[in-house]
């Protein structure tokens, strides 16, 4: 159990730290869409994992919903996310991913 939590926190820390560096560079969905499909899928998978870990600490129902959405989206290459990025090319990819998940599973605003 401890090992899984440590791995989850290490993964989350990596995402947050690398995400901040990417955000400083003005990383936009339009740039993300130029990446190979495998790279896109990997990036989205990592962001979904981050969202699931956060949700799991706050709302088990939301974490379950995100897991279900991810399972549905991964089979088609996360097309709902890709379509949203095409619609909002000037937004950061992680923000678009979170918006798609929030629309499907509810707000990430916890109290």
Span of the ends, CA to CA: 26 Å
Uncertain regions spanning at least 5 consecutive residues: none
Provide mean pLDDT, rounded: 85
Per DSSP, the total helix count is 6
Class from secondary-structure proportions: mainly alpha
H and E string: HHHHHH
Rg value: 14 Å
Strand content: under 5%
Task: Kindly give the count of domains.
Answer: 1
Shape: globular
DSSP summary, beta strand count: 0
Main β sheet profile: none
How would you describe the oligomerization state of the chains in this entry? Answer: single chain
How helix-rich are the residues, as a percent range?
A: over 70%
Spell out the blueprint of helices and strands.
Elements: H1 2-24, H2 29-32, H3 37-58, H4 60-74, H5 79-87, H6 93-105
Helix pairs in contact: 1-3, 3-4, 3-6, 5-6
Can you tell me about this structure?
With 111 residues, the chain is an all-alpha fold. The chain has one domain (2-105). 77% of the residues lie in helices and 0% in strands. The chain contains 6 helices and no strands. The longest helix is centred in the first third of the chain and has 23 residues, at 2-24. The radius of gyration is 14 Å and the shape is globular. The model has no long low-confidence stretch (mean pLDDT 85).
